[in-house]
Amino acid sequence: MSKSLSLTEQLAKHLQRKVDDATRGRARLHLLDWLGCVAGARGSKVASVVARRELGAQARSAYLGNVLEMDDIHRSSILHPGAVIWSAVLIASDDDPADFNNFLDAAVRGYEATIAIGATFDKQHYAYYHNTSTAGKMGAAAAAASVYQLTRKQTVDALGNAGSSTGGLWQMRHEDTMTKQFHISQAAHTGHWPAWLAQGGMTGPRFILEGPQGVYAATCKKPKPMEFPKRWRIWDVSFKPWGACRHAHPAIDGALELQELLGNLDGEIVVETYADAIAFCDNPHPKTPHQAKFSLQHAVAIVATSGVPTLADFEPAAIKRLAKTRARVSVHECKDITARYPQHYGARVRCQQQAVELIDTLGDPERPMSEILIIDKARTLMAWGGLTEKQANKAVKLALEGDDPAAIHRMLGKWLA
Predict the structure, then answer these.
(1) For 291-339, what is each residue's pLDDT tens digit?
(2) What is the mean pLDDT of the chain?
(3) Which residues contact 138 (CB under 8 A, 6 or more apart)?
(4) Which domains does the chain have, with CATH numbers?
(5) ∠ Cα 29 144 364 (to 5°)
(6) Could you give the CA distance from residue 346 to residue 362 in angstroms, rounded to a whole number?
(7) What's the pLDDT band for 237 if we cut at 50, 70, 90?
(8) pLDDT exceeds cutoff 80 at 95
(9) Residue 57: per-residue pLDDT
(10) 195-to-89, 147, 217, 302 alpha-carbon distances in Å
(11) Angle at CA of residue 315, ends 311 and 316, nearest 5°
């Protein structure tokens, strides 16, 4: 692409490509995954707060997709696109109903923009900024722009204004708050609004990323080049099988394989993994479900005592019950595993003089979850959130076979009434 164009202009051009049917099919699986995550969070504290303060199912659902830490993830950009993008598409399609292909295309373009921008952020950015929030705002703008069928120039304006509101600080990691969910909702709404305004002529900065007072100058030391691959990057997004931070998943998978090899995980268990996994998830003494989801020690303790993790294993009773087992788990950085990150999320788990090392994690493109497993995951989440089997069947059918976005809106309205 021409170097005379700004990065957002190049991205807007890149997003104008047609979306093929196979990619739309992939998007349907991610829609189902997001719906499962929203349904599973219906009984959460976050849901009870937003039910009192937010009007409308679309606004409420924007807070819920990440609550259980089971939303999809893109590795090299270290962000969760689905929780932001599906909310933005629903918000935009509520204003301007689209046919289902346009609905899916908007999501694919939103994923693409979020990942394209997020993958350019460096370690300096991720040290302080929540990538899902910072890149997600611009991805939400791209998704809404697609719903509204904006021109390339209008899309650039929307991306520029969304990028000008960059934010989302990691301080929430150090406190027991709902800020992560607030970030995701804010990204969806903040990204949608400039796309809505761009229809009427609201202009925005073309060089919001690389300009002298743009996002990179403010938040990065050495941003990476933006890439424009031929294949839509929703295909590179991973599904999460376990209800914990993705940084804990390699250790869970390694522990599961080692348990199968040994028959049990008695004695000391040593987890070697990459630096960010330790920075986010080295917590031997979690007190709350949220902290348990960000504890390598707790995740491995679940496997050692119960096998495959369930959502109940991160609740208060399990946190108390697994205290002694957590004490048997130690975590350490492994330089060679760190060197492969973030392209690969890996871990090495040792016990009884045996070890298992994984380079990629279940749900990654290299180790994909089957469609059946993705559907089963969604059904499990919906049951956790109190939906009936009939309601779950309807959700699966709408996501995988439906042709009316309004039906998704109506279903969410009933779920979150």
Answers:
(1) 999 999 999 999 999 999 999 999 999 999 999 999 999 999 999 999 9
(2) 96
(3) 8, 113, 114, 117, 159, 162, 163, 191
(4) 7-241+370-415 (1.10.4100.10), 246-358 (3.30.1330.120)
(5) 30
(6) 10
(7) very high
(8) no
(9) 87
(10) 11, 9, 24, 45
(11) 170
The residue with tokens 């040290």 is 127
Structure tokens at 223: 């941003």
User: What is the per-residue burial (b if ≥16 Cβ within 10 Å, else e) of 227-247?
Assistant: eeeeebbbebbbbbbbbbbbb
Q: Which two tokens stand for residue 244?
A: 């914990």
Residue 126 pairs in a beta bridge with none
Cα separation, 133 vs 257, in Å, equals 34
SS (H, E, C) the chain: CCCCCCHHHHHHHHHCCCCCHHHHHHHHHHHHHHHHHHHHCCCCHHHHHHHHHCCCHHHHHHHHCCCCCCCCEECCCCECHHHHHHHHHHHHHHHCCCCHHHHHHHHHHHHHHHHHHHCCCCHHHHHHECHHHHHHHHHHHHHHHHHCCCCHHHHHHHHHHHHCCCCCEHHHHHCCCCHHHHHHHHHHHHHHHHHHHHCCCCCCCCCCCCCCCCHHHHHCCCCCCCCCCCCCHHHHCECCCCCCCHHHHHHHHHHHHHHHHHCCCCCCEEEEECHHHHHHHCCCCCCCHHHHHCCHHHHHHHHHHHCCCCHHHHCHHHHHHCHHHHCCEEEEECHHHHHHCCCCCCEEEEECCEEEEECCCCCCCCCCCCHHHHHHHHHHHHHHCCCCHHHHHHHHHHHHHCCCHHHHHHHHHHHCC
Model confidence at 58, in pLDDT bands (50, 70, 90)? Answer: confident
Rounded to whole angstroms, the Cα distance separating 409 from 393 reads 16
